[in-house]
Amino acid sequence: MSRRRAVGGVVLALAATTFLVAPAQAEPPGLSTPLTGRAFQRLDTGQLGKVLNLPAALDQNRTVSALVQLNGDPVTVLRRRSTGTFSETAAERQVKAGQDKAIPQLTAAGATPYGRLDTVLNAVQVRVKAADLPKLAALREVKAVQVSNLVTADNSRSNVATGADRAWQYLGRTGKGRTIGVIDTGIDYTHADFGGAGTTAAYQANDGTVIEPGSFPTVKVTGGYDFVGDAYDPGSGDVAKETPKPDPDPLDCEGHGSHVAGTAAGSGVTTAGATYAGPYNRATTTKKFDVEPGAAPEAKLKAYRIFGCSGAANDDVII
Predict the structure, then answer these.
(1) What is the mean pLDDT of residues 156-170?
(2) CA-only gyration radius of the chain, Å
(3) pTM of the complete model
(4) DSSP string covering 8-56, please?
Protein backbone atom coordinates (compact mmCIF):
# COMPACT_ATOMS: atom_id res chain seq x y z
CA MET A 1 0.00 0.00 0.00
CA SER A 2 1.42 3.33 -0.99
CA ARG A 3 2.40 5.47 1.97
CA ARG A 4 1.31 8.61 0.13
CA ARG A 5 -2.28 7.53 -0.30
CA ALA A 6 -4.65 9.98 -1.94
CA VAL A 7 -7.31 11.17 0.44
CA GLY A 8 -10.89 12.15 -0.13
CA GLY A 9 -13.48 9.86 -1.71
CA VAL A 10 -17.10 8.98 -1.64
CA VAL A 11 -17.27 7.88 2.04
CA LEU A 12 -19.43 10.28 4.01
CA ALA A 13 -18.05 11.49 7.35
CA LEU A 14 -21.31 12.12 9.16
CA ALA A 15 -19.66 13.91 12.05
CA ALA A 16 -18.36 16.47 9.62
CA THR A 17 -21.79 17.38 8.37
CA THR A 18 -23.53 17.96 11.69
CA PHE A 19 -22.50 21.61 11.80
CA LEU A 20 -24.07 22.15 8.39
CA VAL A 21 -27.59 22.03 9.80
CA ALA A 22 -28.86 25.57 9.92
CA PRO A 23 -30.82 26.95 12.87
CA ALA A 24 -34.56 27.46 12.40
CA GLN A 25 -34.93 30.13 9.78
CA ALA A 26 -36.41 30.77 6.37
CA GLU A 27 -35.06 28.52 3.63
CA PRO A 28 -32.35 30.31 1.61
CA PRO A 29 -33.22 31.16 -2.00
CA GLY A 30 -32.76 28.26 -4.37
CA LEU A 31 -32.33 25.64 -1.65
CA SER A 32 -35.42 23.77 -2.80
CA THR A 33 -34.22 23.43 -6.39
CA PRO A 34 -33.37 19.92 -7.62
CA LEU A 35 -29.81 18.64 -7.22
CA THR A 36 -27.69 19.17 -10.30
CA GLY A 37 -25.74 16.46 -12.09
CA ARG A 38 -26.11 12.72 -11.63
CA ALA A 39 -26.48 12.84 -7.86
CA PHE A 40 -27.81 9.98 -5.78
CA GLN A 41 -31.52 9.61 -6.43
CA ARG A 42 -34.34 8.09 -4.40
CA LEU A 43 -36.20 5.43 -6.37
CA ASP A 44 -39.56 6.73 -7.62
CA THR A 45 -41.90 3.82 -6.91
CA GLY A 46 -44.40 5.36 -9.30
CA GLN A 47 -42.02 4.44 -12.09
CA LEU A 48 -41.98 0.72 -11.31
CA GLY A 49 -42.49 -1.39 -14.39
CA LYS A 50 -40.58 1.14 -16.48
CA VAL A 51 -36.97 1.70 -17.49
CA LEU A 52 -35.24 4.01 -14.99
CA ASN A 53 -32.09 6.13 -15.37
CA LEU A 54 -32.18 5.87 -19.16
CA PRO A 55 -29.63 8.40 -20.48
CA ALA A 56 -30.94 10.87 -23.03
CA ALA A 57 -29.96 10.17 -26.65
CA LEU A 58 -28.52 6.77 -25.73
CA ASP A 59 -27.32 4.81 -28.76
CA GLN A 60 -29.89 2.03 -29.11
CA ASN A 61 -27.20 -0.40 -30.26
CA ARG A 62 -25.07 0.20 -27.20
CA THR A 63 -24.89 -2.60 -24.64
CA VAL A 64 -25.42 -1.37 -21.07
CA SER A 65 -25.48 -2.85 -17.59
CA ALA A 66 -28.83 -2.86 -15.83
CA LEU A 67 -30.41 -4.10 -12.64
CA VAL A 68 -33.67 -5.96 -13.28
CA GLN A 69 -35.83 -5.86 -10.15
CA LEU A 70 -38.27 -8.75 -9.98
CA ASN A 71 -41.69 -9.09 -8.39
CA GLY A 72 -41.35 -10.96 -5.13
CA ASP A 73 -39.76 -9.95 -1.86
CA PRO A 74 -36.04 -10.21 -1.08
CA VAL A 75 -34.83 -12.13 1.97
CA THR A 76 -34.82 -9.15 4.37
CA VAL A 77 -38.46 -8.35 3.59
CA LEU A 78 -39.46 -11.99 3.97
CA ARG A 79 -37.76 -11.99 7.36
CA ARG A 80 -39.58 -8.85 8.47
CA ARG A 81 -42.94 -10.19 7.40
CA SER A 82 -42.44 -13.58 8.97
CA THR A 83 -44.79 -14.29 11.87
CA GLY A 84 -43.24 -17.60 12.92
CA THR A 85 -39.86 -19.28 12.84
CA PHE A 86 -37.86 -17.80 10.01
CA SER A 87 -35.53 -19.91 7.86
CA GLU A 88 -32.87 -17.93 6.02
CA THR A 89 -32.14 -20.93 3.79
CA ALA A 90 -35.79 -21.38 2.85
CA ALA A 91 -36.13 -17.68 2.07
CA GLU A 92 -33.07 -17.76 -0.16
CA ARG A 93 -34.49 -20.79 -1.98
CA GLN A 94 -37.79 -18.94 -2.48
CA VAL A 95 -36.09 -15.91 -4.01
CA LYS A 96 -33.83 -18.11 -6.15
CA ALA A 97 -36.82 -20.04 -7.49
CA GLY A 98 -38.43 -16.83 -8.70
CA GLN A 99 -35.17 -15.73 -10.31
CA ASP A 100 -34.74 -19.14 -11.98
CA LYS A 101 -38.16 -18.65 -13.54
CA ALA A 102 -37.42 -15.12 -14.72
CA ILE A 103 -33.92 -15.60 -16.11
CA PRO A 104 -34.96 -17.57 -19.22
CA GLN A 105 -37.47 -14.81 -19.99
CA LEU A 106 -34.76 -12.15 -19.60
CA THR A 107 -32.47 -14.12 -21.89
CA ALA A 108 -35.22 -14.52 -24.50
CA ALA A 109 -35.74 -10.75 -24.39
CA GLY A 110 -32.10 -10.16 -25.32
CA ALA A 111 -30.39 -9.85 -21.92
CA THR A 112 -27.28 -11.66 -20.69
CA PRO A 113 -27.60 -12.24 -16.91
CA TYR A 114 -24.34 -12.17 -14.96
CA GLY A 115 -25.29 -11.83 -11.30
CA ARG A 116 -28.07 -12.02 -8.72
CA LEU A 117 -29.09 -10.09 -5.61
CA ASP A 118 -31.37 -11.63 -3.01
CA THR A 119 -30.78 -10.05 0.41
CA VAL A 120 -31.98 -6.44 0.23
CA LEU A 121 -33.21 -6.55 -3.37
CA ASN A 122 -34.66 -9.32 -5.51
CA ALA A 123 -32.89 -8.53 -8.75
CA VAL A 124 -30.79 -9.88 -11.60
CA GLN A 125 -27.79 -8.02 -13.05
CA VAL A 126 -27.73 -8.10 -16.84
CA ARG A 127 -25.97 -6.78 -19.90
CA VAL A 128 -28.42 -5.79 -22.61
CA LYS A 129 -28.71 -3.62 -25.71
CA ALA A 130 -30.46 -0.33 -25.02
CA ALA A 131 -33.04 -1.19 -27.67
CA ASP A 132 -34.11 -4.25 -25.67
CA LEU A 133 -34.62 -2.45 -22.33
CA PRO A 134 -38.37 -1.89 -22.91
CA LYS A 135 -38.78 -5.61 -23.62
CA LEU A 136 -37.34 -6.43 -20.20
CA ALA A 137 -39.56 -3.88 -18.45
CA ALA A 138 -42.64 -5.37 -20.14
CA LEU A 139 -42.09 -8.88 -18.77
CA ARG A 140 -44.66 -10.06 -16.22
CA GLU A 141 -41.97 -11.06 -13.72
CA VAL A 142 -40.24 -7.67 -13.84
CA LYS A 143 -41.00 -4.80 -11.46
CA ALA A 144 -38.46 -2.32 -12.86
CA VAL A 145 -35.32 -2.07 -14.96
CA GLN A 146 -32.70 0.35 -13.69
CA VAL A 147 -29.87 1.28 -16.05
CA SER A 148 -26.54 1.40 -14.18
CA ASN A 149 -24.77 4.71 -13.64
CA LEU A 150 -21.01 5.18 -13.52
CA VAL A 151 -19.91 6.09 -9.99
CA THR A 152 -16.50 7.62 -9.35
CA ALA A 153 -14.75 7.96 -6.00
CA ASP A 154 -14.69 11.71 -5.50
CA ASN A 155 -16.10 14.23 -3.06
CA SER A 156 -17.66 16.51 -5.65
CA ARG A 157 -20.59 14.11 -6.10
CA SER A 158 -21.02 13.46 -2.37
CA ASN A 159 -20.92 17.17 -1.58
CA VAL A 160 -23.78 17.71 -4.03
CA ALA A 161 -25.70 14.67 -2.77
CA THR A 162 -25.49 15.74 0.88
CA GLY A 163 -26.18 19.40 0.13
CA ALA A 164 -22.79 20.55 1.41
CA ASP A 165 -22.37 22.75 -1.67
CA ARG A 166 -25.65 24.49 -0.82
CA ALA A 167 -24.52 25.05 2.75
CA TRP A 168 -21.39 26.71 1.37
CA GLN A 169 -23.34 28.81 -1.13
CA TYR A 170 -26.42 29.90 0.81
CA LEU A 171 -25.44 29.61 4.48
CA GLY A 172 -21.72 30.33 4.36
CA ARG A 173 -21.18 27.12 6.34
CA THR A 174 -17.77 25.82 5.26
CA GLY A 175 -16.58 24.56 8.63
CA LYS A 176 -14.74 27.76 9.49
CA GLY A 177 -14.38 28.08 13.25
CA ARG A 178 -15.03 24.38 13.83
CA THR A 179 -12.68 21.54 14.74
CA ILE A 180 -13.23 17.88 13.85
CA GLY A 181 -11.49 15.11 15.79
CA VAL A 182 -10.72 12.03 13.69
CA ILE A 183 -10.25 8.86 15.77
CA ASP A 184 -8.64 6.57 13.22
CA THR A 185 -5.24 5.67 11.72
CA GLY A 186 -3.92 9.22 12.04
CA ILE A 187 -3.69 11.92 9.37
CA ASP A 188 -1.00 12.46 6.74
CA TYR A 189 -0.55 16.14 7.51
CA THR A 190 2.21 16.34 4.87
CA HIS A 191 -0.46 15.85 2.17
CA ALA A 192 -1.51 18.88 0.13
CA ASP A 193 -5.16 18.24 1.07
CA PHE A 194 -4.19 19.35 4.58
CA GLY A 195 -1.86 22.16 3.57
CA GLY A 196 1.34 20.09 3.40
CA ALA A 197 3.94 19.91 0.65
CA GLY A 198 2.08 17.02 -0.94
CA THR A 199 5.18 15.13 -2.06
CA THR A 200 6.41 11.60 -1.44
CA ALA A 201 9.73 13.06 -0.30
CA ALA A 202 8.07 15.21 2.37
CA TYR A 203 6.21 12.20 3.73
CA GLN A 204 9.21 9.86 3.71
CA ALA A 205 11.40 12.44 5.41
CA ASN A 206 9.00 12.60 8.34
CA ASP A 207 9.70 10.19 11.21
CA GLY A 208 6.26 9.11 12.40
CA THR A 209 7.47 8.35 15.93
CA VAL A 210 8.78 11.83 16.79
CA ILE A 211 7.80 15.39 16.01
CA GLU A 212 10.48 17.14 13.99
CA PRO A 213 10.80 20.89 14.66
CA GLY A 214 8.18 22.81 12.70
CA SER A 215 6.48 19.71 11.31
CA PHE A 216 3.46 19.32 13.59
CA PRO A 217 0.94 20.63 14.54
CA THR A 218 0.04 22.48 11.35
CA VAL A 219 -2.39 25.24 10.47
CA LYS A 220 -4.91 22.61 9.32
CA VAL A 221 -4.17 19.66 11.62
CA THR A 222 -3.92 21.57 14.85
CA GLY A 223 -3.27 18.74 17.28
CA GLY A 224 -3.46 15.05 18.01
CA TYR A 225 -1.69 12.07 19.51
CA ASP A 226 -0.63 8.53 18.59
CA PHE A 227 -1.94 6.19 21.30
CA VAL A 228 -0.40 3.00 19.87
CA GLY A 229 2.69 3.46 17.67
CA ASP A 230 3.48 2.21 14.17
CA ALA A 231 4.24 -1.40 15.12
CA TYR A 232 1.05 -1.96 17.12
CA ASP A 233 -0.73 -5.08 15.86
CA PRO A 234 -3.04 -6.70 18.43
CA GLY A 235 -3.68 -9.78 16.29
CA SER A 236 -0.06 -10.62 15.58
CA GLY A 237 0.63 -13.04 18.44
CA ASP A 238 3.80 -11.07 19.14
CA VAL A 239 3.67 -9.58 22.63
CA ALA A 240 5.92 -6.71 21.63
CA LYS A 241 3.60 -5.72 18.79
CA GLU A 242 0.42 -6.31 20.81
CA THR A 243 1.53 -3.79 23.43
CA PRO A 244 0.80 -0.15 22.48
CA LYS A 245 3.79 2.18 22.41
CA PRO A 246 2.33 5.70 22.26
CA ASP A 247 4.21 8.63 20.79
CA PRO A 248 3.28 12.27 20.14
CA ASP A 249 3.20 12.07 16.32
CA PRO A 250 -0.16 10.98 14.77
CA LEU A 251 1.23 10.70 11.20
CA ASP A 252 -0.85 8.20 9.20
CA CYS A 253 0.95 5.10 7.87
CA GLU A 254 -2.13 3.12 6.80
CA GLY A 255 -4.28 5.64 4.92
CA HIS A 256 -7.80 5.24 6.26
CA GLY A 257 -7.69 8.14 8.68
CA SER A 258 -6.39 10.48 5.97
CA HIS A 259 -9.20 9.35 3.68
CA VAL A 260 -11.81 10.07 6.35
CA ALA A 261 -10.23 13.38 7.28
CA GLY A 262 -10.18 14.40 3.63
CA THR A 263 -13.84 13.55 3.18
CA ALA A 264 -14.69 15.47 6.34
CA ALA A 265 -12.54 18.57 5.99
CA GLY A 266 -9.92 18.32 3.27
CA SER A 267 -9.13 21.65 1.62
CA GLY A 268 -8.88 20.04 -1.82
CA VAL A 269 -5.89 19.57 -4.13
CA THR A 270 -5.73 21.31 -7.50
CA THR A 271 -4.69 19.57 -10.70
CA ALA A 272 -1.29 21.25 -10.21
CA GLY A 273 -0.89 19.37 -6.91
CA ALA A 274 -1.31 22.46 -4.71
CA THR A 275 -3.59 23.00 -1.73
CA TYR A 276 -6.86 24.59 -2.88
CA ALA A 277 -7.45 27.88 -1.08
CA GLY A 278 -11.09 28.47 -2.04
CA PRO A 279 -13.57 29.90 -2.58
CA TYR A 280 -16.09 27.25 -1.54
CA ASN A 281 -19.49 27.56 -3.19
CA ARG A 282 -21.71 25.60 -5.56
CA ALA A 283 -19.35 26.35 -8.45
CA THR A 284 -16.53 24.59 -6.58
CA THR A 285 -17.96 21.15 -7.33
CA THR A 286 -17.74 21.81 -11.08
CA LYS A 287 -13.98 22.46 -11.00
CA LYS A 288 -11.28 19.90 -11.76
CA PHE A 289 -9.30 18.60 -8.77
CA ASP A 290 -6.74 15.93 -8.04
CA VAL A 291 -8.56 15.58 -4.69
CA GLU A 292 -11.93 17.26 -4.21
CA PRO A 293 -12.62 19.32 -1.06
CA GLY A 294 -14.31 17.69 1.90
CA ALA A 295 -17.73 18.56 3.29
CA ALA A 296 -16.32 21.11 5.76
CA PRO A 297 -13.22 22.32 3.91
CA GLU A 298 -12.40 25.23 6.23
CA ALA A 299 -12.69 23.25 9.47
CA LYS A 300 -9.58 22.40 11.51
CA LEU A 301 -8.65 18.79 12.30
CA LYS A 302 -7.22 16.88 15.23
CA ALA A 303 -5.73 13.42 14.64
CA TYR A 304 -6.25 10.83 17.37
CA ARG A 305 -4.48 7.68 16.23
CA ILE A 306 -5.67 4.37 17.68
CA PHE A 307 -4.56 2.03 14.85
CA GLY A 308 -1.03 0.99 14.00
CA CYS A 309 0.17 0.44 10.45
CA SER A 310 -1.64 -2.92 10.45
CA GLY A 311 -5.01 -1.14 10.66
CA ALA A 312 -6.15 -3.12 13.72
CA ALA A 313 -6.86 -2.13 17.32
CA ASN A 314 -8.31 -3.54 20.50
CA ASP A 315 -11.40 -1.75 21.73
CA ASP A 316 -9.74 -0.89 25.05
CA VAL A 317 -7.38 1.38 23.11
CA ILE A 318 -10.30 2.99 21.30
CA ILE A 319 -12.03 3.69 24.61
Answers:
(1) 91
(2) 24
(3) 0.63
(4) --S---HHHHGGGSPPS-PPPTTTTSPPPSS------GGGTTSEES--T
